[in-house]
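Hi F.,

I've been meaning to write this up properly since the lab meeting, where we talked about keeping a consistent format for the predictions we share between groups. The idea is simple: the sequence comes first, exactly as it goes in, then the C-alpha cells exactly as they come out, then a line or two of notes. No screenshots and no reformatting. I'm using this chain as the first example so we have something concrete to point to.
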Amino acid sequence: MLDATPFNLVGGDDGYELFDLEWSIEPEVDLDYVLWRGVYHSMIRIGQVAASAPSTPSDCAVLAAEVVRRLTNRSARTTEWLRNESELQVRVAGIATGAAEARSVVACREHATRTRAAADQYAVAADEPRDPQRLRIAVVLHLFYPEYWSEFAQALSALPERTQLFVTTSPEKLGWVRRIVLTDRPDAVVVGLPNRGRDLGALVGLFESHDLSRYDFVLKLHSKRSPHLPEAVGQRWRRELLKHLLPDGRVTDMLRALEASPDIGLAGPQQWLADIRSTQGFETNSAAIHGLAERIGVAGDPFDLPFVAGTMFWVRGAVLAQLAALGLTQDDFEPEAGQLDGTLAHALERAFGLLARKLGWRVAALPSVDGRGDDAAGAMSQASRALQRWLDARHADEAQRAAIRERLAGSKSATSLAVFVLDRAADDADHVATCRSLEGAAGLLPSVRTIVIGPRDAPGKLPGSARYVRAGPGQTIDVLNAQASEIDATWLLVVEAGEIFTPCGLARVALELMDAESCRAVLADEIVRGPDGSLGALLRPAVNLDLTLSFPVAMARHVMLRRDAWRRIGGFDRELPGALELDLLLRMFEDGGLAGLGHVAEPLIVGAAPNGAANDDETKAILGHLRRRGYERARILPRGVRRYRVDYGHNAQPLVSIIVPTRNELAMLRRCVESLLEATTYPNYEVLIVDNGSDEADARAWLDGVAAIADARVRVLSCPQPFNFSAVNNKAARAARGEYLVLLNNDTAVLDGSWLDAMLNHALRPEVGVVGAKLLYPDGSVQHAGVVLGLRGP
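Output, unedited:
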C-alpha cells in the first residue's frame, strides 16, 4: 500500500522522513496521514470499478478515512488532512507553475463514482479553453428566504445540464426547502446549517461536508432581501444580479468567455463592483479586513481591489479552496442580530478578492460576451462613441474663427498664456503630440508660449516655437517655478506630456477671461481616456471647496493660474510634487476665499484617466490646509480611489432639535421616530413631533402616549391650525432648545447611525449655514444627495 502512495518514506531512529520531488521534504510524518493519502489518491486516480454498497460513503476523503479507522483502530483527522492537501497544492503552485496550471488546486473531496474514463474527459491542455458543456460547474445558493426559490429555479435552468446545485438554509426551514428544491432539481444537495454569518457563514459550513475546489467555476448566490432597507431595494438587487450573472440566452457564451480569461479568479457585474474604501462602514470593517489579509497571506494594500456588492458572483473553485484552507468555521461568525456592519461576514465580503489575488488572479467585471459584454459595459461603449461624436462637432469654422480672433483682439488686456509640458517619461512622441495639439488650439489666441520640461539634454525637434528645458533628478518643480517666474505671460497652465488640447477649448477659455481682471484661477472641463481607449467626460461644477477636498483628482488638475496670484502665494511647493495644483488651489482658498476662482463649461484637455494609486501628497496637502485653518484634530478618511472624507475633529457636541411634522400616518411616523431613536449615535439631541391635527384613533393614542411619558428627549407639540408647512416648522423652531435644527419629514427612516455626526461635521464649520443629507427613494435609488452649484444654477 505504501509503495503505491505518491510518497517515498525513509525510516530512521528519530522517525520517518517524507521525500518527494513533486512536493517537498517534511520531517516527522504521521503514518496515518500517509495511509489515508495513499488510499485517497488511489481512488481518485483509478475510480470506482464496481457498484458500491448503499451504506458506502460516496466522498473519497470520507471513504479513505474509514479505511484508516478500520486498519489502525484510530480516528482519522479528515478535516486536518484535507487542509494539508490544499496547503501542499499551494506549495506546488509556488514551485512548479506547470503543475499549478494543469491541476490548479488539489481536489480534496472527489466523488467515488467518478471513473477514470470520466476523469479523462477533463484532460484538456491548460492553454486550451474548454467547451462550457465540459466545464465542471456548481451553484451554491443560500436560500434563507425559500419564497424566492421560483426566481432562482427559472434563472438556473439556463446553466449546462451537468451543473451541480448546492442549497443551504437554516435548520428550521430545511424541510420546506427540500420539498420545493428537490421537486424541481432532484439532483440538488440541500444542507441545513446554523444561521450564523448569513450566506458566507453557510458557505464556510458547506465546506465541512462538500468540496467545491474540484469545480472549474462556482456561481455563488443567495436570496438577498436586506431587511434594513425597503423591501423593493432587496428585490431589485437580487433580480438585477441574477439577470447579469445568468444573462438570458448568453450563459454559454459567458462561461466560454470566463474560461478564456485565465487571469480572472472572481467576476461580477460591472455596476456591482465596489471600492472597499467608499463603502458604508469602511472604518468599522477595516481592522477585520486587515486581519483576513494577514491570515490569507497576501502582501500590499488589502483595500486596493474591488469587491462584488451583494456577494453574488462567479468564482473559480481554486479560490474557494483558499477560503477552506483558512480553517474558518461557522462558530467564528457572530450570532445573527441584524448587524449592518462590523462582523466577520461583512469583512469577508469585502476581502473575498484577496483569496483570488493569493493565486495570482484578479477580481474583474464579467468578461464581454461575443463583444457585447454586460448591459453596463455596452452602455459605456455607446456613451463613449456618443461623446466622441460630440467632441468631433466642437470645431469652429473659418467664419467663427475670424470672429473669435476679432473679439480677442479688441480686449483691453490681451490674454497671454504660458503652457508647461512636464515630460516625466522622456517620451518624444508624447510631448510632440501635446505641442502639436497646442499649436492648433492656440492659433486663435494672441500669445501662447510652450515650454517642455524633461530630464534629457538633447531632445528631438519640437513643433513650432516650443522650447525644451532640462530638469535633473528631483529638480522638476524648481525648474517649473523658475521658468514661471521669468516668463512674460498673464496666465500659467501645467499639463503632462501626452495630453491633447481640444481644438476650441483654449479659445473659449480666453473669451471668458476677457477683461476678467479679478479672476485668479479658472478650471475648464476635461475628457478622460480609459486604458481600453473609451472616453469619459469630466464636466465640473463651479469651483467648490468641499468637492476639491473630497475629490481633488477631479477638481484640481489643469488649473489655469493668473501669474500674479501664483507668485503672491509663493508658487508651487517642491515638497508636494504629486499635488502641485491641489496645494496651490487650497492656498488660494485661504488667501481670498472663492472670490476670483472660476469655471468654464468647455472641454480643454483630452488625457489619460488619472492614476488610481494612493497619493500621499494629496493627503498632506489637505491636512496642511486644514491645519492652517485651525483644525488641529482633523483627519482624512479615504473613501475610495483618491477620494476622501474630511473629519474636522470638532470638540463641541451642541444640542440638536429634530423637528418632525406629522398628521395621522401612524405607521410611517413610528418608523421614522423609532429608527431615529434606535440608530442615531450622536448623543445630544431632542425630537419634536409636531402634530398638525391628527384625528385617526391609533395616531391620537400613540401621540398621547408619547406625550404622557414626559421624556425630555421626545416632545409632542400640538399645531391644529390648517396645514401650513412653514408655520408648523416655525412653531417647533420657537419651542426648540437646540442650537441646531434638523427638519425631518415623517416619511423618512434612518439607515446610517452616524448621520447626525456627519451633518454636524460640516454644520459646525463657521462658513456653513445649511447642511443636507442623502435621501433615498424606497427602491434604493437616490432622491437627492445635496446641491452642487454650477450644474443647473444654485
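Notes:
Residues 2-116 form one domain.
The first helix runs from residue 31 to 46.

If this format works for you, I'll send the rest the same way.

G.
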